[in-house]
Amino acid sequence: MTFIKTPEEITQMLVNITTQLEIFFLIVHGLFLAVLLIGFFYKKVRNILFFSFIAFLSIAGLVISTIFVVLPNIIMFGIISILIINAFRKKELNFELKNLNFPSIIFGTIGLIFGFWYLHWVEDPIWINALFYSPIGGVNCPTMLTILAFLCFTIEPRSNILEVAVGVITLYFGFFGIFLLGAYIDIILIVCGLFLLMRAYLIHKKSN
């Protein structure tokens, strides 16, 4: 997040983003469900579909961060967008679900659920409104958690630099959300971020 705003100002900004772009986030939720449904059942389009969605999320995060002038988010989403596109270009985004190990399935599923149903920054009743309007593709925490969740469903060869970058940035936003903004749901970001970093480390260690 920004280094010059107070936690109160950041909170108000995130609420404003969610409120002003409510229709956009509703559309993204619909896309999210469509991408998952089509991707899980139609193997031939899965790679391009999942890649396109996470690239869309990171670029949307970049654009919205630019509109609302959140410099750290501009930098982080810019980096992630480049790394996602580069990983796809190098054939390092392989969503071959049948060869996944069990921990990747578990943490990927957790990330998908709480990325889609992010219980913060929406109006009451949060439990219901988060199903439709949580700010995926606009606010850093649900956006990074969703990108991370999709990466959990990849098999080797993977982009180690992409997974490390996503893991580190997700951890950063997770700790920031919990300790400065009181978004305790961000414990999910920390848990999933640690898993992705551990998986990337073990793969790197095995390859060496």
What does this molecule look like?
This protein has one domain (7-201). The model has no long low-confidence stretch (mean pLDDT 94). The protein has helices at residues 7-20, 22-41, 43-67, 71-89, 102-116, 126-133, 140-152, 160-181, 187-207. 75% of the residues lie in helices and 0% in strands. The chain is built from nine helices and no strands. By secondary structure, the chain is mainly alpha-helical.
At a glance:
The chain is an all-alpha fold and 208 residues long. Helices cover 75% and strands 0% of the residues.
Features:
208 residues; globular; mainly alpha
Net shape: globular
Largest sheet: none
The whole-number mean of residue pLDDT values reads: 94
Question: How many domain regions?
Answer: 1
Q: From N to C, what is the helix and strand string?
A: HHHHHHHHH
Tell me the Rg in angstroms: 16 Å
* Quaternary form: single chain
Q: Report the end-to-end length measured between terminal Cα atoms.
A: 35 Å
